[in-house]
Structures are given as structure tokens and as C-alpha cells.
Amino acid sequence: MEAPVIQIQDVTKVYHMGEVEVHALRGISLEVQPGEIMAIMGPSGSGKSTLMNVIGCLDQPTSGSYFMEGVDVGGLDDDQLADIRKRKIGFVFQTFNLLARTNAFENVTLPLIYAGVPRAERHTRARAALGAVGLAGRMAHQPTELSGGEQQRVAIARALINNPSIILADEPTGNLDSKSGAEVMALLLRLNRQQGITVVLVSHDPNIARSTSRIVHLSDGQVSGEEIVPQPVEVGE
Amino acid sequence: MLEATRLAWRALMANKLRAGLTMLGIIIGVGAVITLMSVGDGVQAYITDQFRSIGANLLIVFPGSVQDPMAGMASLISDKAALLTVGDAEALADRARVPDLVAVAPQLTRFGRVSVGRDETLTQVSGVTPEFMQVRTWYPVVGEFIGTQDMEGRSRVVVLGQTVVKDLFADNPYPLGETVKINNIAFRVVGVMEEKGGATAFSDQDDMVFVPLTTAQTRLFPSRTLAGERGVSTIMGQAVSDERIDAVKEQISTVLRERHDIAFRDEDDFSIISQAGLIDVFGQIMDVITIFLGSIAAVSLVVGGIGIMNIMLVSVTERTREIGLRKAVGARRRDILQQFLIEAVALAILGGVVGTGVGAAGAATVTYLIGEFEAKLSADAVLLATTVSALVGLASGLYPAWRAARLNPIDALRYE
Ligand SMILES: Nc1ncnc2c1ncn2[C@@H]1O[C@H](COP(=O)(O)OP(=O)(O)OP(=O)(O)O)[C@@H](O)[C@H]1O
Ligand SMILES: [Mg+2]
Best mutation site among A97, A98, A161, A163 for testing chain B: the one with the most B CBs within 10 Å? Predict the structure, then answer.
């Protein structure tokens, strides 16, 4: 059997705010298998984003272990973490985080620049990635010339472009109306189903969460429950 | 690297006015440095040229020691301290004692009033011997120079310099046979010297007239030393060759010390300078001045660097989210460091290039305004200025870039 994409054990995260210690994660264990699509739910402040940051190697846990595809991620230095982010992880943010005054093509190819991919190949891959999110004709558009849903799809194309092991989406539909939200979600589901990309997403919306096959509930920095969705809700594209 | 350069270019282009104003400091600094260095080089080349025109392998003996230059100076303008004599000149002309000197030309020079009718000019009146021509490699264009017979006869004949001709004979460039008065004594014009060199702020070699040394000593500026000898103001000599200059100095010194009864330990009461020595000393002085002015100008380069650092710090703060995103998609510290460093260096180099243009224009303007010499844009100055501005960019970009590089990706992404 393949190693789990994500395997975390007893992970804690403590923020120090001067005198006060904030326990954002209090011992979380979690496994995500290749090809899975999973949602994390929980009240505000329960530690969802903190957990996503740890999974995404943007942040190091205070304690606990983290193996990604069998590789121990704990104790890697800054540059090694950057390397993992570059090769294995695609991020989708609630606020899109596209570079302003930069067209879709260049936004999408940003990870390739740091991966040292030559320009010609960047072109073909950007075309493919933007095609996959249904924006093949928008290469030259700047973020301000795109709708919210389109911007998020550009961001998904950017997350896809390095063929990552996993896409992490922290409230990807949080800033979208329900229609574009449904479109973005349908896109993630299709990528998971058709290309077998592992997806972990955070959502407050039960409809969104129920369209995945597994939901992990967090509360107060701990896993408070886990459910398998027997019949995922269909979201229309 | 190429990508990073493209990126830096775009960042600069996104804010052209800001980039331009930031570069201004560097532009002014580099421009000033280059203008000053070019003008300095130009002046130096020009003066060196002027010294060369004095004559090849030339040595000049002045009265007064180097330690007491004022005494020597005094003898140049008054009769009181005539420390060099015709006898000294004759001794130096003795090939047995001073074998490396091919010609010796004593000279007695004072200011005098030269007039034709009502027109009068104050100029240098120089009593010379026929050897003067050879030593200075300076000849008349028309007529003749002072001859041996003129010397023996103490003749009242004069050879005019070009400036004097222009001043007194506006419509007759060859006033041979005319009469001029020098300090109210009538002289006949027997020759006109060729033009020696343009007028400078320092001296006009053509503003001069020549009479026989003997005439000058007896009729114009009569004076004798304590010993009763006829004085001269300087003795010029021509060495056989460049390489023998030091040897000649040695020989002259020996002869003059003996003639002047100078005790073994005492200082010389005369000084010997050579054309090469003059050029050397002058070059050193110019170097000091150029470096001094250059360092003042360089201060504005430092100010320009501070401007770049300031703008880069602002830019890093403004682009915190961008930096966070870049790191999130896999940029390493060194990628971010490189991006901001290249941006700072590009600003500085661009400023350096424009500043070089400004400096070249400044040098050209100075050349145009003064007209006497050419302020050449030296490759050294350009190289120095661009290197220095690149270094300034590097130095001032380092800290902001380092701050950007070590930003934590999540904090940066969350930055408002
Ligand atoms: N950088 C930080 N410094 C200090 N405390 C932090 C920091 N980031 C998060 N926290 C705290 O950790 C806890 C978990 O925060 P987190 O952002 O993970 O919550 P969340 O579940 O994503 O909430 P939301 O649904 O509102 O996005 C909160 O109490 C928060 O205040
Ligand atoms: Mg959150």
C-alpha cells in the first residue's frame, strides 16, 4: 500500500503572545490517503487554518510528528520546507492571493519560476492548467479584469501547475457567492475524481463539506469527530 | 537570474516616478564625480602640454633654496637679491665641468613698459643670449633673434612676442624696423617670435619681449651683486637627454656650490627644476585636488544610496503579501533576497548610467565654456562611477532584501 499523503501524530501548536500562550492545536492526529478528498469543519478559532498551515509546511508544529508521503517533515529548515511546498503542495487561499498588475499566465507560472522550469515549458503547462480550470482564453487577463470565481480558478490553476501531491484549500469559497462557490467546488471535485489529486479543504458551508467523502470536525484545537459521507452531495458546475 | 532581472525591471516600471526620483541621488552623484574627474584630467593634460612647450630636456636654475623660496621669488622681481650671475652661467657653459649640458641660457627678466607712440603695454622684458632659441626651441617667424653682435654691442634691438605685436601694432603683424620704447629708451624691432601657446589663466608666453642680456643689464635694469658681478634672474639649460637630467642637476649643483662658497653642511642657495619635475609635481597637486573634489561628490553617492535603501524598505513593506505568496509557492530565502537585491542594484546602475551621461554632458559643457582644454570623459571615471554605484546599490539593497527574505510566509500572507 502507498504511504499516506499526510500522516500527523499528536501535533500541537502554541502561539506566544507576550505573556499569554495560545494553544491553537492540542494534539491532533490525522491521516489522508492518496486520492482522498476531505473537508475540515469547525467553529471560528478552532484551529483549522493553523492545521492547514502545518499540513502545508508553511508553519512548523510545536510538537508532534508529521510525515508527508513517508518523509519526515519535522526538523527541515526553511529552504527545505520551501522545496516541499514547491514540489508537493498546491495552495488555494480564501482571498485568492493573486499578484496584482500581473496577468493570469504569469500568476499561474509563478511556482514554475522557482522550480527553474524553462519558459517554453512554462507556456505549455500554463495553457494546460488554465484549460483544466476552464480559463484557457484568459491568459492575458489581470486579476482586476476577472470575476471572483475566475480569480479563484486562476489560483487553483496555480496550485495545480506543479503536479502536487496535494491541494490545500482554506475556505476556497469563503469569498464567493454561492454560484461561483459551487463552480469552484465542482472544479476541485472534478480534479480529484478525474486526475486523482488529493484535496484537503476547509469550509464553513455544510453543503460544500458534504460534497466530499470525509469530514473532520475540529473544536478548540482538537478533533471532535469524524464522519464518512456515504453519498456525497452533487454540486453543479 | 534572468527571471529575477525581468521581475526587477517590472517592479521599477510599475512605479516610474518613484524609481526616477530614487535614482536622482545616484545620477547627481555619478554626474558630479565624472564631471570633476574629467575636468581634472583635462586640466592636467592641458597644463602638462603647456610645460612640454617650454622646451625639451629643459632645466631652470632659480636663485634661492627650496627651503626659502621667498628669497628666490624676491630676486625675480627686484634687483636686491641677485644671487645668480653671468659668471655662474659661464661656469655652467664649461663643457669640461658640466659635460651633460648642451646649451646654457642666462636670462634677466623684469616687467617693463613697452610703448609705441601713445600705445603702451606692461609686459615682461627679458634680457637673453642667442642660446635662448635653442634651449627653448622657440624661434622668430620673421626677422632675427638676438645675435652675438647684439650682445657684444649692447645694442638697443628688440624681438617682440606675438601678444605684444597685437597690442602695439594692430594692423602690422611684421613691424620690422619700427621703433618701440622700453621704459622710455628707444629700441629697434629686429624680429617677431612665433606664437608659443594660447593664453592661460597662468601665463601668456607670448606676452613678452626679448633684448640682448647685456643691454638689459646695463641700460634697462642695471644692478650688480655685492661682488660687483652682473646678476641674472634665471639660468636655463638644455640637457643632452632625458636620462641625463639627474646627472646634470648633480653637475650644476657641484659647480654652483663651489662658486657660491657654500659650506659642506649648508643648504643650496639656488634651486634646479626640470620640466619633468614640474610635470610631476603639478600632476601630484592635480591628483590631490581631483581626489578631494571627487570625494565631496562621492558624498552625494552615499546620500543616493540612502535614498535607495529607504525606497527599498518601503517597497518591502508594501509587498509583504506578495513576498508571503512567493514563499508559499516555493520561493526560498535566496530567491527573495536576489529579487530585491537586483532591484536595488538595477536602480543604482541605471542611475549610474544616466549619471554618466549627465557627467559627460557636464564635461562637454565645461569644455565648451572654457574652450582652452578638453575635459575628456575618461574610461577610468566611467568604470569607477558605475562600479561604485553598483556597490552602493548592493550595500543599500542588502538590508531591505534581507528583511524581505526572512519574512515568515504565514505572517506575510496575513499582513494588511
Ligand atoms: N499568528 C498567531 N499568533 C497568535 N495566535 C494565533 C495566531 N494565529 C492563530 N492564532 C490563534 O489560534 C487559534 C486558531 O486560529 P485559526 O486561525 O487556526 O482558527 P480558524 O479555525 O482558522 O478560524 P476561522 O474559521 O475564523 O478562520 C485562534 O484562537 C487564534 O487566535
Ligand atoms: Mg481560518
Answer: A97
Question: Under an 8 A CB cutoff, do B329 and A101 touch?
Answer: no
List the grid coordinates of B133.
632659441
Instruction: Report how far residue B88's alpha carbon sits from residue B83's, in angstroms, rounded to the nearest whole number.
Output: 10
Q: How far is CA B141 from CA B56, B138, B376, in A?
A: 20, 10, 33
Interface contact flag, A82 B14, Cβ < 8 Å: no
Set of cell numbers at residue B212: 640682448
C-alpha cell of B363?
564635461
Spatial CB neighbours of A71, under 8 Å, sequence gap ≥ 6: none
Vertex A223 angle, CA A221 and A226, to 5°: 155
B331/chain A closest Cα distance in angstroms? 6
> Ligand 1 centroid vs A221 CA: distance in angstroms?
10
pLDDT digits (tens, 9 = 90+) for B383-408: 888 888 889 899 999 999 999 999 98
Select from B324, B326, B332 the Cβ nearest to the Cβ of A110.
B326
pLDDT 10s digits, B145-173? 999 999 999 999 999 999 999 999 988 88
Ligand 1 atom nearest to CA at B414: 1
**Confidence at residue B358, expressed as pLDDT on a 0 to 100 scale:** 93
Q: Which pTM value belongs to this model?
A: 0.73
Q: Please give the distance, rounded to the nearest whole angstrom, from the Cα atom of residue B193 to the centre of ligand 2.
A: 97
CA A204 / ligand 2 centre spacing (Å): 10
Q: Give ∠ CA B212-B116-B175 in degrees, rounded to 5.
A: 70
Instruction: Tell whether B413 lies on the interface with A, counting CB pairs under 8 A.
Output: yes
Tens of pLDDT, residues B235-285: 999 988 878 888 898 899 889 988 888 877 777 788 888 877 777 878 888
CATH number of the structural domain A35-59+89-228: 3.40.50.300
Q: How far apart are CA B225 and CA A75, in angstroms?
A: 97
Neighbour order of strands in the sheet with A71-72: A20-32, A6-17, A63-68, A71-72
Give the pocket of ligand 1 (CB within 6 Å): A 15, 17, 22, 24, 42, 44-50
In which region does residue A134 sit, left (phi positive, over 0), alpha (psi from -120 to 50) or beta (all else)?
A: left
Q: Which of residues 13-52 of A touch B (CB under 8 A)?
A: none
